[in-house]
Design a protein that fits this description.
Strand content: 15-25%
Radius of gyration: 17 Å
Distance between the termini: 43 Å
Strand order of the largest sheet: 3-2-1-4-5
Number of helices: 5
Shape: globular
Structural class: alpha/beta
Largest sheet: 5 strands, mixed
Number of strands: 5
Length: 178
């Protein structure tokens, strides 16, 4: 499975591509950051993010795009920018018919480090170890994007089995009366 991980942000949007399957060594195919100037107009920044993500999609042809689920923070302007960048990533994937998976920061941290409360340094260290890199990707947004892709590769098989079980249960209970 080839997954493009996106750590959304208006100023720095982390991007990372990981290939592999659960239980086997993973390979990093690319990592980077789409940057936009903080003083640019919002529309121009969103277009720049779109163009950057489209380049990554063209180059790496992922099967899935994993995006960090936006969560409530105290700073509303930060949440809005993150949500807008997240929407751009989802739109780019949807336009191409690529499935999108959303993972919360705590899900990603727990999958990669074993603790949903891990800090950025711990996530970076584990990403480095899991992908057999010489050093943690910089900035942290890039490492977080790789962590999202790793999380999805590891969680997808279990999530698929759960969805199949729910669908099977739902179809088996149709037509029954109590």
């Amino acid at each position: 499975m080839r997954v493009l991980g996106v750590d959304p942000g208006l100023t720095r949007c982390g991007i990372g591509v990981v290939e592999g399957v659960a239980g086997r060594p993973l390979a990093m195919l690319g990592v980077g950051v789409v940057r936009t100037p903080a003083d640019a107009e919002l529309g121009d920044r969103l277009v720049a993010i779109e163009q950057g993500i489209e380049e990554w999609l063209d180059t790496h042809r992922p099967e899935v795009v994993a995006v960090e689920r936006v969560f409530s923070q105290h700073n509303v302007s930060t949440v809005m920018g993150t949500a807008q960048a997240s929407a751009v990533a989802m739109l780019c994937a949807a336009r191409r018919g690529i499935p999108v998976a959303l993972h919360t920061p705590s899900e990603v941290k727990a999958a990669v480090t074993g603790s949903g409360r891990a800090d950025k340094a711990q996530v970076g260290a584990m990403v480095t170890r899991l992908l057999r890199l010489d050093a943690p990707p910089k900035p942290a947004d890039a490492a977080d994007a790789l962590a999202l892709a790793i999380c999805h590769i590891w969680r997808a098989p279990a999530q698929n089995r759960l969805q199949e079980a729910v669908a099977l249960h739902a179809s088996g209970s149709k037509g029954r009366t109590r």
